Amino acid sequence: MRSLPLTLKSVDVSLVLHMAQRAARPSSRKRYLWLSKSGDGWLYLLSPLIVALSSTTAAAVQFFYVCGTAFAVERSLYWTIKNTTKRLRPPQAIPGMRSVIVAHDRFSLPSGHTSGAFLFITLLSQALSPLWLLGYFWAAGVGTSRVGLGVHFPTDVCAGAALGTSVGLLISGAFL
């Protein structure tokens, strides 16, 4: 029997299909949906309140401006990359694949949920405390959920994590 060469694409497809099988279990699907929804953006709007509770009003205002700048840069880059690469989502790229949810846009690279989550945690860890680095477990869960729900490939999530972290470090280094 001849073995097929292991390529990044074959690993990507294999992982998304494996995780989609897990999403067929109600407990996994529920966890994936909860994690995905936690990365929808509403939490980011509350972040200045988190900072205000743990610091001063001035720090919260500064954090608000840093977040606004960082998300403006990240969303611009995200949109440009997504609409330049035009990578199809798993259900359109893999025959017979069905996602658990319907994505809000057509293309998959990079994962915007993952990028936003990694950006948010990077900003919190830079502005408040290194203890927020533990939030990367949540951010990774957001990315994993997007693969499990069948709307992203693992490499989309990796690209989103790299984008969010990079922009977070760049902007926080310039402002904080």
UniProtKB/TrEMBL annotation:
<dbReference type="InterPro" id="IPR000326">
    <property type="entry name" value="PAP2/HPO"/>
</dbReference>
<keyword id="KW-1133">Transmembrane helix</keyword>
<feature type="transmembrane region" description="Helical">
    <location>
        <begin position="42"/>
        <end position="73"/>
    </location>
</feature>
<feature type="transmembrane region" description="Helical">
    <location>
        <begin position="116"/>
        <end position="139"/>
    </location>
</feature>
<keyword id="KW-0472">Membrane</keyword>
<dbReference type="Pfam" id="PF01569">
    <property type="entry name" value="PAP2"/>
</dbReference>
<protein>
    <recommendedName>
        <fullName>undecaprenyl-diphosphate phosphatase</fullName>
        <ecNumber>3.6.1.27</ecNumber>
    </recommendedName>
</protein>
<keyword id="KW-0378">Hydrolase</keyword>
<keyword id="KW-1003">Cell membrane</keyword>
<feature type="domain" description="Phosphatidic acid phosphatase type 2/haloperoxidase">
    <location>
        <begin position="66"/>
        <end position="172"/>
    </location>
</feature>
<feature type="transmembrane region" description="Helical">
    <location>
        <begin position="151"/>
        <end position="175"/>
    </location>
</feature>
<dbReference type="InterPro" id="IPR036938">
    <property type="entry name" value="PAP2/HPO_sf"/>
</dbReference>
<keyword id="KW-0812">Transmembrane</keyword>
